[in-house]
Amino acid sequence: MPAFNEGSSIAQVVCQMRDHFPCVVVDDGSADNTAQQARSAGAFVIRHPVNLGQGAALQTGFTWALEQRADWVITMDSDGQHNPEDALRLLQLALVQGWDVALGSRFMGRTEGMPLSRRWLLKAALLVQNLTSGLPLTDVHNGLRVLSRKALQRIHLRQDRMAHASEIIGQLAQSGLTVGEGPVTIRYTPYSLAKGQSSLGALHILVDLLMARLGR
C-alpha cells in the first residue's frame, strides 16, 4: 500500500488487510504519523525520506517484493476505499483463471457514495484509456490489483505521480501477459473524496502521459 499522510486511516486498513495477507506500506515521505500507525498495526514499512508520488511508492514496493521473491503482490489504496475481501477474491480468480494480472473493476461490481460527476469523469477517462492502450477494460484508475511475479518483472514505472495508473495499463497491453478483471466494491467517503483526484488532477495525468510518450 502506498501511503502519504494517511495517519488517521492507515492502522484500520492495515488491520483489515492483515486478516488475509501480510501487509507492506510504502510511506511516501509523510509529514504525519503514517509510518508509526502502520507499524503499530503490524505492517512492514518502507519509507521514502521525501514525497515522490504514488507511482514511485508502488515501484519501490514492486522492487522490494521481487527482492523478497514474492509470487504475488496486491496493491490497494490506504484511505479505506477498498475491501480486503475483494482482494482475496481477485487473487483466487487469477489463480483459477491462470491470469498473470487481475484488475479490480467497480463497474463490474458496485460503488458506495460515488458522486455522479466522478462517474462521468471515470467513464470519459476509460474511453480514452481503452482507445490509447488497446486493452479493453471496464474500469480506470482502480488501485486494487493482483500482480504475479512475472508481471512485476515486466512493469517499470517511470510516472512518479498519479499517471502511473495509466502507465501500468499501457505496459500490460504491450507485455503479452494475461490480464483479467473482477468485480470489487469502492467506498467513497468525504475523507477518500478529499484525498482523491480532481478534474484538474485528471488533466495533469493526461499531460504527464503525453510528455512520457513524446520522450520515448
What layout of secondary structure does this protein have?
Layout: E1 2-3, H1 10-17, E2 24-28, H2 34-40, E3 44-48, H3 54-67, E4 72-75, H4 84-97, E5 101-112, H5 116-133, E6 145-148, H6 149-154, H7 164-173, E7 179-187, H8 190-195, H9 199-214
Parallel strand pairs: 1-2, 2-3, 5-7
Antiparallel strand pairs: 4-6, 5-6
Protein traits:
Spore Coat Polysaccharide Biosynthesis Protein SpsA, Chain A; alpha/beta; globular; 216 residues
- Which structural class do you get from the secondary structure elements? alpha/beta
Number of domains: 1
SS element count, helices: 9
Strand content: 15-25%
Distance between the termini: 29 Å
Give the overall silhouette: globular
Unreliable residue stretches: none
Return the CATH architecture. Alpha-Beta Complex
Rg estimate, integer Å: 16 Å
Largest sheet: 4 strands, mixed
Describe this entry's structure for a reader.
- The protein has one domain (2-214): Spore Coat Polysaccharide Biosynthesis Protein SpsA, Chain A.
- It is built from nine helices and seven strands.
- The chain has helices at 10-17, 34-40, 54-67, 84-97, 116-133, 149-154, 164-173, 190-195, 199-214; strands at 2-3, 24-28, 44-48, 72-75, 101-112, 145-148, 179-187.
- A four-stranded mixed sheet has the order 4-6-5-7, sandwiched between helices.
- The protein is globular.
Concise synopsis of the structure shown:
The protein is α/β, with parallel strands linked by helices.
